[in-house]
Structure formats: C-alpha cells, structure tokens
Amino acid sequence: MTNWDDVRYFLAVARGGSVRAAADRLKVTHSTVIRRIGHLEELLGAQVFQKLPSGYRLTEAGEEILALAELMEGASHQLETRVFGRDQNVRGLLRVALPPTVATHLLMHDFAEFCRLHPDIELQILSSSELVNLTTRQADVALRVVYDRDTLPAHLIGRQLRDVHGAVYIARDLLAAHRSGRETKVRWVLKLEDGGVPEWARENEITPSDAPVTVTDSEAQIIAVRAGLGMAPLSCFVGDVDPSLIRVPGGALRKHGTFWLLTHGETRKTKRVRLFSDFIAQRFDTHATLLAGLLVSG
C-alpha cells in the first residue's frame, strides 16, 4: 500500500526538479528525500524519475503517477481542512500570513493584545511578500492588500477591511537641506520590484536626482529614507507615525488598495480563526484614520 508521505516527496521532487529543491521545500535532508523516493519506487515496482545533469525528470511511469498523486494531495488537503474546520477548541496553532511592513509597522501591538486575550492560542506570524497558498494550508488566515477585487480567488472566503493610502516621504533633515540649497537634488529610494518611480509620485516640489538608490525590500527602503538617502513612496501607516519623516511638499495622497482578510473553506469555521478575524476587523476600524492618510505629518 502506498504511503501518502512517500507521495508527498514524489510531488516535491516532480515540482522542484531536484532533490535539493524538494528537501528545501519539505525542510528535510537530501538523504531523506532519496530514501522516500526509493521506497515509493520499490512499492510500485517502477522507476519514477530519471536522473539527468539538469535535474530529475519524470519517467513515463512517473508521468502516469503524477496525476494520481495530485488527486491524493487534493483529497488529503480537503480532509485536513474539514477536520480543522470542526475544531472549536481555542487552544492550538493559528498561522497568519501578511506582508512584512504590515506586521512590523501596523499590527504587531495588536498581535500582542490578541495573545494577551487568548493565551492558549499559539500565534505564528508568517511575514513575507510571497503569497501563501491557503488551499494547502500554508496558513490559516492571510491579510493582503488587493488592488482589484476581481483578482481574488473564487475559492477563498474574503472579508473586506479598510483602504490603505500612501504618499511620498522624506527625512525632515534632508528636506531642510534641500530647501536651503545644500542638497540641490534628492534621490529616489526604490525597491527592485517597483520598476521605476510610480507616475503618481512624480508630482511634488522636490527636484529629483537621475541616480536612484535601489533596495531589495520595504524595510530597507524605510530605513534608507529615514537615514536621509532620499525620498520614497511609503504607506501612510509607516510615514505618518515616524517623527523623522515628513510628506514631500506638493505630493499627492494615493490609494494603494484595500486590505482583505482571507480564509479557505472550512477553515473559517474554527473558533481560533473566527476570534482572530473579528479581532483584526475591529483593529482595522481603529486604524481607519491612519490607513486613510488623515494623520498628516507636519
């Protein structure tokens, strides 16, 4: 009889194309992956992978098994979700996925309050710019900024929270230096993923430099602006509460999108998820003025 764990390893190698990729994904050693694949091949009496210099390629038998393995995976996830959905116990793990900036600059104090209110819930904060897969239960709840409601996956359960706005910010000392003439031009501080200065951010009273500073993530961008490297578009919940920053004069306030709280299927019925969803919705209402950019830095 085929072991579902062996099938998981088979799928990880098939999708990653190598033992290394599968081991990283499953957080196990290379030898464990090789042993599991060998065990599966022994049970099936067939070789499922061909080892090539470029990686692992499915054999003809492996191709036939792949479709069945994916059906097994779907059934397993459905079973886990249904069982989790019937769990009305407050004690246990709750995994929340959200962008790093939102975790560190907006909600961390709220998370602390939630943990004080529910000491038996083990809160796992998954702060990453990558979108997690709620269907495979990489997380129980996801907070995302959505730009177009129609892009939300139909199979997810969504709860609309609040709009989030942004503006262009600069360090107060750098603005003073620019106004005095000591800094004639100010650099843009951009993330690699931005692909340039957003059109809406260009209209302001600062003379920009043609040589931007580029960073890899939002946190580095915030620190760079705070340090006086230049100006950058930031969320108002970041810029308006930082005493070292000020909005660039003449700049526009821009809606970045809308926060949504997302869950999947039966997961939303668990008591832990319901408690967290209601709590966060209330906290977003409390943050409404900040998110709307109405706490203007002066």
Automatic annotation (TrEMBL):
* PROSITE patterns named among the record's database cross-references: HTH_LYSR
SUPFAM superfamilies membership: Periplasmic binding protein-like II, Winged helix' DNA-binding domain
Please name the Pfam families in this protein's record: HTH_1, LysR_substrate
Q: Which residues form a coiled coil?
A: none
Question: So which domain of life are we looking at?
Answer: Bacteria
For this UniProt record, give its keywords in alphabetical order, as a comma-separated list: DNA-binding, Transcription, Transcription regulation
Q: HTH lysR-type domain location, by residue?
A: 1-59
Signal sequence coordinates:
none
In which family does this protein belong, per the annotation? Belongs to the LysR transcriptional regulatory family.
The record ties this protein, via PANTHER family, to: HTH-TYPE TRANSCRIPTIONAL REGULATOR, TRANSCRIPTIONAL REGULATORY PROTEIN
What name does this protein carry? LysR family transcriptional regulator
The organism is: Sphingomonas abietis
